[in-house]
Structure formats: C-alpha cells, structure tokens
Amino acid sequence: MSTPASEPSAPSPTAPDPTAPPRTPPGRIAYLVLLVGITALAAFWLYIDRVCFSTLADPIQKDLAISDDQKSYILGAFFLTYALFQIPMGTLADRFGPRTVLALSIVAWSMVTAATGLVGGFAVLIAVRLTLGITESGAYPAAAALIKRWAPAGVRGLCSSAVALGGRLGGAVAPFLTAWLAVALVGFGLADWANNPAGVNWRGVFVLYGSCGVAVAVLFWLVVRDHPPQVVGPPPAPAEGEEPDWHAMPPAKEAPAPGAPVPFAQQLGKLARSRNMWLFGAVQMCVNLGWVFVITLLPTYLSEAFEMSLKERGKMQTVVLVIGCCGMFFGGMLTDGLRAWLGPRLGRTVPLGVALGGCAVSLLLVPTFSSVWPVVGALGLMAFLVDLHNPTIWSFAQDVGGKNVGAALGWGNMWGNLGAALSPAILINLRNAAGWDAAFIFCGVAFACAATCGLALDATKPVDGPGGPTSPAP
User: Fold this and answer.
1) Which residues lie closer than 8 Å to 337 by C-beta, 6 or more apart?
2) Which of 85, 121, 203, 392 lies 20 to 30 A from 349 at CA?
3) Measured CA distances, 245 to 327, 338, 340 (Å)
C-alpha cells in the first residue's frame, strides 16, 4: 500500500529564515560596558600620571635645586599646553578615529611620564611637563567621540560619568600610591642614578607609572573599535508593548560619512561661530577657576589657616576628592534621567545650573567657618557637585558636536584648562592682598558665573545645524 506524500510543513514563525541576510549577534550592550571600562582605565592612568607630580614636587625641587619661582612655572606648564592642544587633538580624533588617537596618546604620555624620571634640571623638566600637556590633551576629546559613536543618547551621560569617574579615582589614589612607592622603591632602579638628597626614589615611580601606561595602551588597542558593527537587514519588530532593541539597530546617522575629513580650520570656524560653544567654554573656565583650588592650594591653605600637619593635610585633601568621586558616580544617571523627563534642552541645563549654583553657595560659606572640618565638608560638597555636573558637560558636547564631538569637547576643555592655569596665580595674589576669604569669594563668584552660562546652553542646537555655526558669538 502506498503511503501518501507528506505535505511540506509551514515554517515556524520563530524559526530563523535561512534566506535572510546575516545579522550581528546580540551582545553590543556587553561590549559597550567593556569599552567604557577600558576607557575608564585609561582615564585612571591619565590622572595617576598627572597628579603624581604634585605629590613628588617637593623632593624633585630639592634634588634638582629648583627655586620656588621655577617650581611654579613647572606646575603651570602642563595646563598651558594641555589647554592649547585640546581642539587640535580633538580634531585628530574626529578625523582618524578615537581608537587610534587615544591609544597613541596613552603610549605618548606614558613615555613622557617615564622620561620625567630621567631629567637632570629645570630646563629639561619644564620641557617634559609641556610635552605631557600635549600628549594628554587628546584623551577626553577622543573618549567623548568614542562614547558618542557607541552609546545611544539615553545612556551617554552614564557612560561619560563612568569614564570620568575612572580619572577622578586615579586622582584620589595617586597621592597615597605615589608617596608609598617613592619610599618603597628606595634602593631600587634609579634611586642612586643622580644626586638624591631628598632620600626618596621619585625617579623610579615615574618610570614604573610609564611602563604600566604602555600596558594599558596595548590593552586598549586590542579591545576597542571605532564603530559598532554594521547590522545587515532591518531590525526585528518589537512585540506589542516592548521597546525596540537599541543594540540591534543600525549605526546612528551621525557615523562619519565617507569622503574627505573636515579641515581643522573649518572645524575651528564652526566652533567659533557658535554661541553654544562660547557659553560652553565660559562654563568650563569658570568652573576650573574655582575647582582647581582643591588640587593645587588646599594643602597650603590648611597649613596656613589651621596649622595642619602634612599627614593631616593629605587625609583632608583625600576626603574632599573621594567625596567628589561620589558625585561623578551619580551624575550620569542624573543627567540621563532628567533628559528623559525634561527633554534634551532642560535635561542638560537644569543639572548644570543647580550643581554649579550649589558650588557657589558652598564656597561663599567657607569664610564663615572657624574650624577645619566644616571647611573640609563645604569643599567636599563643592567637589561632589562639580563631579555631578561633569557627565552633563560631556553629554552636552556629544549632543551638539555631531561629527565634531572631539573638537567640541576640546573647545570646552581648552577654555577650562586655561582657567586652571590662571587659578593658582589669581588665588595666591588675592591671598596676599586680602587673605584667604577673598580667594574663596572669588571662587564662589566664578561658580555663579558658570551656573548662569550653563542655564543659557541649548543642547537642541548642534554645531553643524541651524542655530549652530550661524549663531553670533556673545
């Protein structure tokens, strides 16, 4: 008896279609977490190499017979070149890709850090510090461009805060780690390479940090890619009531288009014609005029105003910086949540205005305190609010930068670091003329100006779009 031919079964609605174009397997969210973690590690070493010099400045000054004036020039040299090269390095990141620029930057600043351990006098040391400013200047513009390419707008603040938190943690760890290593390495390596009346191995610390930085650069290059993988074919339709799967979507429209890159002069012209960018730069400059006190003159103030010992000053400075790190942790979630709630404009301006206004109040209260721990608490609150606003600043640059994210963030960082270079000299002169209270009042007014400019920003007006480059500068 013949068996009836079986009818072909209908394809299961859930079975993959073998004729459909291949798609990228899921996992972009996991990779984004990995990418942010590696970039945060790079920021950690960025600040380790940046802050360690201030910890070792006194033994360096003693060993190299450097005067106080020469020491001040050395401390300011880094901020000068770091500020001036923000836009050029950000433009390179936009042109050649953030992966290449950031990896090469890590290698370069690590080699300069190691070379610091080989200097023999003032002239070479100031040249090394100027070079360190150049090599570190591309780090955050490139990191911002990288996050813009990988992260959707709704989580850019969180990703930016994670990277910036890595830097802040490096700055908080650096004083303790550097001081411990300088003593622990006595008798090893370069300790006896040159005259060493200070009795600590600061040369070996710089060489060790530089070597670790090169290892971080290799890891970064192996893991990070400039763009998410292309997704072939349309994304699957979400079920009813579900949100679209963002990590399965095609790359964002702002991915670099083929063709000749935008010349540096043209990018700079766009930034200079944007009202948003001038306000952005004013925010950054005014913030650093006040905040840099914490990492430059706070130990001097604690010594003169409250006669704190070196150990106590270090502990109090660390307390302030650690409180600041907590602000960086919450800042990304805050700006992303407010953007979803208030929209793209108010979601950026409200956290800026509130945080920086709170900084102004905190510093203006310092002259009213007569004991040290209330002062430390007020400065800690200021540091917390500064770090709380940082992810919003990054996210704003990513919102308005378009293809020029690196250059846009570099523009703001340039003005911010010019403020950082000016701050110690201004505050010392105010201290000499009218006392420390005048210096705190100046910092409070600077933060009030930053809050005012922050409220005037408009994240809905991109540099390349209507209202961007055609808007007159204030």
Assistant:
1) none
2) 85
3) 30, 22, 18
pTM (two decimals): 0.68
Q: Do residues 54 and 235 make contact, with C-beta atoms less than 8 angstroms apart?
A: no
CA distance 412 to 285: 8
Q: HSE-up of 240 (CA within 13 Å, CB side)?
A: 0
Report residue 99 as tokens: 């992966």
Treating both helix axes as pointing N-terminal to C-terminal, what angle do 436-455 and 275-291 enclose, rounded to 10 degrees?
A: 160
The CA distance from 123 to 107, in Å, is 23
* Other CB atoms within 10 Å distance of the CB of residue 183: 11
Read off the tokens for 30: 């996991």
Give dist(CA 383, CA 318) in Å, integer: 11
Triad 458, 452, 414: Cα angle to 5°: 70
For residues 148 and 175, the answer to whether their CB atoms sit within 8 Å is no
Measured over the CA atoms of residue 92, residue 96, residue 98 and residue 101, the dihedral's sign is negative
Please say whether the beta carbons of 462 and 399 come within 8 A. Answer: yes
8 A C-beta contact, residue 410 and residue 145: no
Task: Report d(CA 351, CA 204) in Å as an integer.
Answer: 43
The SS3 call for residue 5 is coil
8 Å CB contact between 255 and 346: no
Q: Over the stretch 124-139, which tens digit does the pLDDT of each residue have?
A: 999 999 999 999 988 8
Tell me if 89 sits within 8 A of 119, measured CB to CB.
no
Same fold, 27-229 and 263-474: yes
263-474 sits in which CATH class? mainly alpha
**Rounded Cα–Cα distance for residues 340 and 338 (Å):** 5
Q: Sorting pLDDT into bands at 50, 70 and 90, what band is 27? A: low
* Domain residue ranges of the chain, discontinuous segments joined by +: 27-229, 263-474
Please give the structure tokens belonging to residue 432. Answer: 């000499």
Q: Are 135 and 115 in contact (CB under 8 A)?
A: no
CA pair distance 301, 303, nearest whole angstrom: 5
144, two tokens? 């911002």
28 compared with 67, residue with greater pLDDT? 67
Which range of 143-157, 287-301, 363-377, 457-471 scores highest in mean pLDDT? It is 363-377
CATH superfamily of 27-229: MFS general substrate transporter like domains (1.20.1250.20)
- Burial 433-464, CB ≥16 within 10 A → b, else e: eeebebbbbbbbbbbbbbbbbbbebbbebbbe
